[in-house]
Specification:
This protein has 495 residues and is mainly alpha-helical. It has three domains: 217 residues, no CATH class; 104 residues; 97 residues, no CATH class. The protein is 49% helix and 5% strand. The chain has 22 helices and seven strands. The strands form three sheets. Strands 1-3-2 form a three-stranded antiparallel beta sheet. The chain has a two-stranded antiparallel ribbon with strand order 4-5. A hairpin with a 4-residue loop joins strand 6 and strand 7. Helix 12 crosses helix 15. The longest helix is centred in the last third of the chain and has 34 residues. The protein is elongated, with a radius of gyration of 45 Å. The protein starts with a helix and ends in a 10-residue tail after the last helix. 22% of the residues are buried.
Length: 495
């Protein structure tokens, strides 16, 4: 070797060591495309238990048949110890429904790393989808359910014979019937590796992380994901009930007996202090019109003292009634903070709050009855007998007009004569000064938005006669004011 070639040979990197020294490279490659990663389309067979499945995992790790960088430019470079650690967690789950958060907590890896190693297990034919998880906007993520399978390359390399006992069953249900003599020694070595636990290297950073509780130690117990207790790897389908999706990634408890549920008999959990604040805030924004549109967290912070004191929304409404509510509110949370200030110290007992509620309800009942009386009085005013105006001239005019109407209705002399409008004015005895006084009074009321005089003249003598008295301009303004007063978008006030 020349002097130039010698340094180049020294600089060449050594080959990357695999997980296991014993590799079986009898096949050209190992890769399962995405379309074949479902149990219904997979060519693999279902593993009988987690132990036999881990034998296949260690064989794939040491075979070197899987090269992830042939298919992508990112992610792990090989099927390494980290992938085996993830597989160990999956081997303890029955059914195999691992949540990403659960695997992150158990292995100490990042979420992206866990997803990459799950993809490696699928692409090597060791995992197959039964149900693929989904992520719905606004709801919890649905965990995927996998089947632990053994690829056909493993059976071919070790000379494992399989048989399909039921011809109508799918191909992945075939069972092992024997093994070649050449593969027995390798199978024994894989069995020893499957019995061991591959742990994370104890670096300084990992030691500090373990002391701070970031990485959960791997337990020797066999977990059962649905029941969340320690159990065997066998399935008891008759008594197994699936938990909610939010609980699938919680792993198993340390105790072999299930914990008692903290939920109430009605199915709802008891709220803590923060939950009671938000519940009260949500009810206040729904029942108080001037709080609608306000931020519920802000209202929860404002009402935190009364919520912690055990107040309900009825207690708050009774207290606000006696403090006084504003008709026009610019900032509801600020007004509520002022009104609730010190309320928990004044109504500090349930008896005082109950008394305040009774007074508030009594005031509401009195206001309701007063409103009924006002409505009745208004109806009697417009639908029943009307009240005479305060002006003496108008009172005499109305009295003579009513007498004329009654006389005409009863068949008197005026019905036969059919007097004209001018004769009717002469019979009423209205002179020019009286007309001017009536017009001046009606004009002043129109400036204040009142049309009682003109309406009274129209109801008593007719629209034509009222127009002759007050003029077309004043009649038009009275009609405009009347139509505006009936609209819900405008309000006429008096100064």
């Amino acid at each position: 070797m020349s002097s130039v070639a010698a340094p180049a040979a020294v600089l060449l990197p050594s080959p990357r060591p695999s997980v296991d020294d014993e590799g079986v490279s009898v096949l050209p490659g190992l890769y399962v495309p995405e379309a074949s990663q479902w149990l219904s389309t997979s060519s693999s067979r279902i593993a009988g238990d987690g132990y036999s499945w881990m034998q296949a995992v260690h064989w794939v790790a040491g075979s070197g048949l899987y090269k992830p960088r042939r298919h992508r430019s990112h992610g792990p470079r090989s099927f390494g110890p980290t992938t085996v650690r993830v597989a160990q967690e999956l081997a303890q789950l029955f059914p195999c429904r691992p949540g990403i958060e659960y695997l992150v907590r158990r292995t100490g890896l990042s979420e992206r790393s866990v997803q990459n190693h799950l993809q490696i297990l699928r692409e090597t034919g060791l995992l197959a989808y039964i149900v693929k998880g989904t992520r719905v906007s606004g709801g919890p993520a649905q965990a995927s359910e996998f089947a632990r399978v053994i690829p056909t390359e493993f059976d071919a390399a070790l000379g494992i014979r399989t048989v399909q006992r039921d011809e109508d069953a799918p191909a992945y249900t075939r069972a092992v019937s024997g093994i070649a003599e050449a593969g027995r020694e390798l199978m024994a070595k894989l069995a020893k590796k499957a019995a061991r636990k591959v742990r994370k290297p104890r670096s300084k950073a990992s030691v500090r992380g373990a002391e701070q509780g970031r990485v959960t130690a791997v337990s020797d117990e066999v977990r059962c994901t649905p029941m969340q207790v320690g159990t065997s790897a066998s399935s008891t389908a008759g008594t197994t009930s699936l938990p909610p999706e939010s609980k699938l990634a919680s792993g198993a408890s340390k105790s072999p007996t299930p914990k008692k549920s903290k939920a109430k008999a009605g199915g709802r959990r008891k709220l803590n202090a923060v939950g009671r604040r938000f519940q009260l805030a949500r009810e206040l924004t729904q029942e108080l019109g001037w709080l609608r549109g306000c931020s519920v967290p802000r209202i929860a912070w404002v009402a935190r003292n009364v919520a912690d004191a055990g107040w309900t929304v009825t207690d708050v409404r009774a207290w606000l009634h006696f403090r006084g509510e504003a008709a026009h509110v610019r900032r509801g949370s600020g007004l509520l903070a002022v009104l609730l200030s010190g309320g928990e110290n004044i109504l500090d007992t349930p008896a005082k709050r109950a008394d305040a509620i009774e007074r508030w309800r009594g005031a509401l009942e009195a206001a309701r009855r007063d409103r009924i009386r006002q409505v009745r009085a208004e109806r009697e005013r417009f639908e029943g007998d009307w009240q005479a105006p305060s002006s003496r001239a108008v009172t005499r005019q109305v009295a003579r007009a009513i007498a004329y109407v009654h006389e005409a209705a009863n068949g008197g002399r005026r019905q036969a004569q059919a007097p004209s409008t001018d004769d009717r004015y002469e019979d009423l005895g209205l002179a020019d000064p009286q007309f001017e006084q009536m017009r001046a009074q009606a004009r002043g009321e129109l400036m204040r938005g009142v049309t009682d005089l003109i309406d009274l003249a129209v109801d008593s003598m007719g629209r034509e006669a009222a127009e002759r008295i007050y003029g077309a301009d004043m009649m038009r303004r009275a009609r405009q004011l009347a139509s505006t007063a009936r609209s819900s978008h405008t309000t006429i006030t008096h100064r």
